[in-house]
């Protein structure tokens, strides 16, 4: 387990799920993206997280996407399966499936909508962790889930052997610093917020589960290496180069802008599923200009 934790570091792309214009999953496009990320130096892939449209895929599609990413990656880089749900039963089932499919770890989001207590969160993640012999990464993103996983609860969960890390998407650097210090290596902290990822890694975070890495994987990979090595000047220089991109990729709800960016790059088709719709017209030119400024298109 310790060896795997050391292996899952650096740039971890929160991979989009490419779709055709009619909304069907583009399986050839998915294979192409996985191969591209391996070639570009991405360190690990999250399949079917928020950016992968986990909320609009059917259970069968969810499973098939995880299986396909595992197959194509073929152990060249780790694959982390998104297995979060607001039903503990469903999260357990997805976690067990990910284990059966050969995923290297799972990413389990705080249950959304039903607003559980901190005790409910503890029991939920404990049940998920105990359901399969697979490393579990917690995922705290209160801007989407409403419920916030408190640092005290994370400390309790750190005592469960296969809970190995947390994706902190709060964007609160002081809170992240406190968590890293309190955990003292008991669990890995990953950034889940591209704007603040560099600073969190310079504080001791071990990687970024990144939306921006979908668009500029090589640059994000080098940035993560520099930040984890505590090469602050180089890391911050790279961070400044992609700062505009980090902002504009959230001009609408993720993954709307990042999918449009990849479409502009010729990497995927336009497909996205309702209730999400393609990027609004007023954002398209600023996004295209940002991609041109950085030299992506």
UniProtKB/TrEMBL annotation:
- Which residues does the entry assign to the active site, renumbered to this chain? 139 (proton donor/acceptor), 167 (schiff-base intermediate with substrate)
- Family membership noted in the UniProt record: Belongs to the DapA family.
Chief location bin: cytoplasm
Whether Lyase counts among this entry's keywords is: yes
**A GO biological process held by the record:** diaminopimelate biosynthetic process
Annotated SUPFAM superfamilies: Aldolase
Q: Which InterPro entries match?
A: Aldolase_TIM, DapA, DapA-like, Schiff_base-form_aldolases_AS, Schiff_base-form_aldolases_CS
**Protein name, UniProt field:** 4-hydroxy-tetrahydrodipicolinate synthase
């Amino acid at each position: 387990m310790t060896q795997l934790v050391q292996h899952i570091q650096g740039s971890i792309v929160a991979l989009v799920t490419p779709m055709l214009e009619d909304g069907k999953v583009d399986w050839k496009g998915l294979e192409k993206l996985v191969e591209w990320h391996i070639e570009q130096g991405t360190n690990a892939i999250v399949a079917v997280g928020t950016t992968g449209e986990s909320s609009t895929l059917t259970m069968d599609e969810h499973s098939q996407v995880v299986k396909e990413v595992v197959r194509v990656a073929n152990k060249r880089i780790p694959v982390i399966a998104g297995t979060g749900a607001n039903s503990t039963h469903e999260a357990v089932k997805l976690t067990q499936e990910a284990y059966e499919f050969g995923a290297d770890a799972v990413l389990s989001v705080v249950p959304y909508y039903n607003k559980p207590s901190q005790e409910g969160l503890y029991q939920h993640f404990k049940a998920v962790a105990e359901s399969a012999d697979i490393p579990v990464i917690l995922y705290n993103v209160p801007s989407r889930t409403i419920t916030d996983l408190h640092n005290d609860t994370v400390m309790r969960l750190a005592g469960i052997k296969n809970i190995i890390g947390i994706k902190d998407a709060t964007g609160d650097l002081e809170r992240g610093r406190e968590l890293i210090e309190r955990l003292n290596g008991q669990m890995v902290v990953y950034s889940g917020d591209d704007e603040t990822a560099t600073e969190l890694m310079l504080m001791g975070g071990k990687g970024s589960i990144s939306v921006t890495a979908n668009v500029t994987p090589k640059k994000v990979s080098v940035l993560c290496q520099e930040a984890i090595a505590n090469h602050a000047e180089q890391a911050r220089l790279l961070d400044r180069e992609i700062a505009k991109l980090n902002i504009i990729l959230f001009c609408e709800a993720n993954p709307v802008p990042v999918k449009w960016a990849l479409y502009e790059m010729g990497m995927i088709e336009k497909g996205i599923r309702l209730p999400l719709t393609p990027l609004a017209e007023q954002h398209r030119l600023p996004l295209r200009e940002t991609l041109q400024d950085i030299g992506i298109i």
